[in-house]
Amino acid sequence: MEIRNKANRIRLLNLSTPQMRAFHFSWFAFHICFFGWFGIAPLMAVVRDDLGLSKTQIGNTIIASVAITIIVRLLIGVLCDRIGPRKAYTWLLCLGSLPVMGIGFADSFETFFLARLAIGAIGASFVITQYHTSIMFAPNVVGTANATSAGWGNLGGGTTQILMPLIFSGLLMLGVNEAFGWRLAMVVPGVVLFICGVCYYLFTQDAPNGNFEDLRARGELPPASGESGAGQTFLAAARDIRVWALFVVYAACFGVELTINNIAAIYFFDNFELSLAAAGMIAGLFGLMNIFARTLGGIFSDLFARKAGLKGRVRWLFIAMLCEGIALMFFSQMHVLAFAIGIMLVFSLFVQMAEGATFGVVPFINKRALGAVAGIVGAGGNAGAVAAGFLFRSEALSYQQGLFYLGVAVIIASLCVLVVRFSDEVETQEAKAYTDAVGEDAGAGALSLR
């Protein structure tokens, strides 16, 4: 799929272009999805006491919150190819708001588990965000655009850790008891999700030249594939070993981030004897690194591409993954709060840069099946979170041991990057596309305010 008039700069304060409106709405929508997706995580200590949950049951709900996302991410990429990211995001946000608000009706482990399972579907928003920015921005900045939009979206994991305990505390100050307070607090992200879905439909468009239905009517885009065509697109992506290598890589970076988002608050609460608010604040620092860390991953991906083409993007991804695994192993051994926070921030830097580097490579794997590739790789993140979840549901393993084993797994997964290769023909084509995209802006940064 070839989309014309892609932007070759990211002008942050310019909302007059469809490219920049898509950029800002896509990261904000993903940010809000994180707010709903992990809104309950920093309140789990209260939920645990209210519903009488064991460690194993908490682990099962963590797995549930990311498991369903694997399936939805696989489907949502193909859906984007068919109906466009604008409609796909609108439906996901509006429908996803219902279980977020509905979790407040949970009165047992079983109903709480089902609610977290349903909420997990909104995690597929990541694929739409990456899809939308991939078709809006040119090769010289697409790595930065993808990384920044996803990073600022992931930032929702940090703001959620900070805001939800504050919302909960505010409700307690108004006289609401704890058992009703956590339920009422979840209404806030649900309402915001619904409003965001409506705004996404009203203020964005699918591509620089218009919506997919208009482009198809003008003959600028191939007709929407039927079920067989969509299946062929998915199979084309699924048959590519590089896609599955990136699936594993993303499982070892974004999957790890999702796991930390789920356990960080309760980890600091239990291990360092902190208050719920203090534990949430510290856990929030991990997610807040997304304000620049994932963007750095994309910027370095674009810079490596300038010097060494697609091979450069792959080399940078390997470096980031290796450093992530080492930092995670060190974090697992910290028993002093100050040291634990410091190493956590270093680990956070590399895990998020690795995510940005991964989606600096994804747009170049198969442009005709971009949605399918993004969906499969994106699903890898949740598959990794599910696998990691089993480490933290076991009564026999402490959280520290689980984190250490997870660090070892990341280092092993980094070797999968070596499978990702491109033909000389593709390298030459993309090098030319990069040069053409830079054009008169050679020497200018990818990010600018105006």
TrEMBL record:
SUPFAM superfamilies linked to this entry: MFS general substrate transporter
Bilayer topology term: Multi-pass membrane protein
Transmembrane parts of this sequence: 21-46, 58-76, 88-106, 152-174, 180-203, 243-268, 274-293, 314-331, 337-362, 369-391, 403-422
Keywords tagged on the record: Membrane, Nitrate assimilation, Transmembrane, Transmembrane helix
Domain Major facilitator superfamily (MFS) profile: 22-425
Location (main, coarse): membrane
MF terms (GO), sorted A to Z: nitrate transmembrane transporter activity
Statement: the UniProt record of this protein carries the keyword Membrane: yes
Gene that this sequence comes from: nasA_2
GO CC list: membrane
GO BP terms in the entry: nitrate assimilation
Pfam families from the UniProt entry: MFS_1
InterPro entries the record matches: MFS, MFS_dom, MFS_trans_sf, NO3_transporter
Subcellular location: Membrane
The family this protein is said to belong to: Belongs to the major facilitator superfamily. Nitrate/nitrite porter (TC 2.A.1.8) family.
The protein's name: Nitrate transporter
